[in-house]
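Project standup — Tuesday

K.O.: blocked on the structure for the chain from last sprint. Re-posting the sequence here as requested.
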Amino acid sequence: MLSNFDYEPDNFPGQLPVGRLEEFEKAFTRWVEASRPIVLPSDYRQHIQQYHGGVPRKGSFVDGTGRRRTIGRFVNFLRPSDPLPPPNVVSWRGSGRDVRLDYSIDVLGPMSYANMDGLGPYLVPFACLDTNGHNCRRMARFDLLCFDFSDGGQINVVTWDCEKSSTDNPVTAPVIASFSELSLRVESSEPDAADVSANDMKF
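H.V.: unblocked you, prediction finished:
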């Protein structure tokens, strides 16, 4: 179900650990001091159980401003203590960790050191976007595709601009109303292999 992204079959970072989504939701709810539990969309939750952190071959879409964007990789919920399938590739970004952890919610999410100010309290990233014509797997920072919880009951999908956003001022563009609708809209997108770093060709 919801496999219209046509994932690269050998490019998943590992299964979603049991209970990890619930752990994130509880932590995020406490962090934003929400009056009621924050829960990720059910269609996304169902999808990520089977397709955790994959690289889509169909990930191109047009956002609400008319700009075409491309998903480079989906965010994962892994931690350094989780077992990862081989091969292990050290990140070229200088973190010393496996490169697949560079795309984890702990590194990219709203509670992360890197993005907590720019994302603000209502955005939860679920995919990395190619930015300024470059594959996100080659960039130190990149735009993100996020769930926007700022509208109360309605959870919208938006893009987040890493360069234009600043402390408590996230710059976003509307995309679509739901993850399911996004999965039906995406089109084929072949990344330029020359634009992915040598030790990150696979991940």
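K.O.: great, moving the ticket to review. Confidence is low (pLDDT under 50) at residues 191-203. The chain has one domain: 20-76+89-200.
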